[in-house]
Every structure is written in C-alpha cells, then in structure tokens.
Amino acid sequence: MKKKPSVLIVDDNPENLGVLGTIIAENGYIPGFAKNGEIALAAAKKKPPDLILLDVMMPDIDGFEVCRRLKQDPTLSDIPIIFLTAMVEKEDVITGLELGAVDYVTKPFNNKELITRVNTHLELKAAKEALSEKVEELKQANATKDKFFAIIAHDLVSPFNALLAFSSILASKHTKMPEDERDKCIQCILQASTHNYNLLKNLLHWARSQIGRLEVKPTLFDLRDSVGKNIEFHTEVSKLKGINIFASLDTQWVFADQKMFDTVIRNLLSNAIKFTPEQGMVSISAKQKDDFVEISISDTGVGIKPEDVNKLFRIDVSQTTVGTGKEKGTGLGLILCKEFVEKNGGTIAVESEEGIGSRFYIRIPSK
Fold this sequence. Notes:
Layout: E1 6-10, H1 14-26, E2 30-34, H2 37-46, E3 51-55, H3 63-72, E4 81-85, H4 90-99, E5 103-106, H5 111-155, H6 157-173, H7 179-210, E6 219-222, H8 223-233, H9 235-240, E7 244-249, E8 253-256, H10 258-274, E9 281-289, E10 292-299, H11 306-309, H12 332-343, E11 347-353, E12 357-365
Parallel strand pairs: 1-2, 1-3, 3-4, 4-5, 7-9
Antiparallel strand pairs: 6-8, 9-10, 10-12, 11-12
C-alpha cells in the first residue's frame, strides 16, 4: 500500500493549525503540527515531512529563518516549503523564494487554492524522487556494463596469453627442458587456468543475475560438503605458495541456495590465497548465532587499507589489487559475493589490518 504523504504545518495560531490540519487530512495527507520555529526544526529532523506549510510571522524565530536553517541541512533541504503569509509585499515574496521556498499562499487563504498548491508540489517532489531513482539505476547499469566489457577486453584475455605462451613452450621444448623449468611452466599454466575458470564462472553467474535469470532456490544443506569441495579445488594453488588451509566448523547446516553459496565460498577462499604470502595461513570457521550461521574466512595476508574497505563491494568503483604472487584480479568476485549473500537473506562484511591480514565473514540463515 502506498504511503500517505505527510505535511508539517507551522503556525503560532492554534486556530490556524486546526483549520489547516482539517484541510490536509480531508485531502488524504497526514498532518503534523508545530506552534513555533524551534519545534518545527526539531520535528523535521526527527521525522522529515514530505512538505512544510510555514507561517512567516512567528515570535522568536520567524518563517524566513526556519526556512534558511532547513535549506542548510543536507538531509532536509529537498523538502518543499510553502509560505503562509499575510504580507503581500513583493520584496517579502522574493525573500522567501530566494531562501528556497517553492511557493506562498496569502492569508486569509482560499482552501481550494491552498490544497491545489500542496498537491502540485507534492506531485513535483514525487516526480523528482522518481527521476533521481531512475538516474541512479542508469548509473548502476552503466557501471555494470563498463565493468563487464573491461573484464572481457582485458582481464579475460591476459590469462589466455599466459596459457598460450607456456603451452607453446612445453609443446616445442618439453623433452629438452630442465625439470625445474618444466615444473615452473606447468605451475604457471595451472595458475592461469584456475584464474580463468573462476573468472568465467563469475562472469556467467553475474550475467545471469543482471538479466534476472538467476533464480534463488534455498535448501538446507551440509556446510562441510561445500567447504570441503572448495578447499580441495584450491589445494594445488595453495600448495604452490606453501599456504596451509584450516577448517573449523562448529555447525554444519545452512539454509541457502547451495550453488550461490559455493560461489561465495570459492571467491572468498580464492581471494584469501591470492593475498596471502608464501608459507601463510588461511582458516575457515563457522559458528551458530541465534537463527544465523556466521562463516569466517581469515588470512595472514597483506590486509586492506582503511580507505579501500568501503570500495570492495561497489560496482561503480574500480578497486583491484595484485596478489602476493602477482595474481591479477577484477574485483568482480566480491561484488558477486555481496549480491549472492544478500539474495539469500544474509550479510557480508570485512575486518582488516594492513600487514596483518583480513577476515571476511558472512551471516546466513540456518533454517
């Protein structure tokens, strides 16, 4: 059901408050009342109305000063203000409009004129808000498109160059190569293949999600299976860096879409390995907390700068860091993690300290 717009009426005359309140209520709006400027400012800050009818001549703080203060507050500046005034001097009208008011009604006011002006400015406000939402949607859509094409144009091509180069070397020289050089080529191929596999899966999931074809199908599943499969998948890559992966799961059941959840664990585990130096450690834990399971993936890696933490899950910010083994990333993995976790009714957050490591933790329903 659509919420009724609220109108704050500010007037030091109780009779005017009663009359205006009746008019506003009879036309389907929710009236609020303030008998002076201080009360009006406090009421607007506590619960911003959709429109304000503001008397000019009031003791202590007049309507002009109330308007000026409201327009200086970024959280209240967009509220349309209609002045109620017995003054008809042109200079006073201009003063009110220059302060940011959208209109004025002279006393004694005509009921039909008053409500027509209220209706008009509430409709304009609603249209402005709808337009702002559309603009934000378009910005997000453009950011998504730009990210998608950037990944295809650069991040997806680069690993294939490495695959082709090292495969070519092995194909032509493997019988003559020293064993250590051959092993190095094989390791590079493995790293590039793993990176591309993860990236392609993320791109496919993300593309389906953006066009609304990714259906959430939550089920109760065993967390140990998902964690075990993902650890096994990353075993060879973690061995190349001498990184130990430990799992400690105090609870085992999670209610979520298992395929989405596997993608989240795979990305978080891949990131942890990527940003942990050789001989480091990655750990996965799970604990029951009320109706949620909290799963943490921690590492002894490079950590994240405080100013970069808020950029990690944003599609409109290009935030990528080279791993400790020169691994490249796109930033898509964490964006996908946030989207999938939230689609399953959960939350994702991070704690990090530069040079010490990071802990990503998700909270997901257990039933």
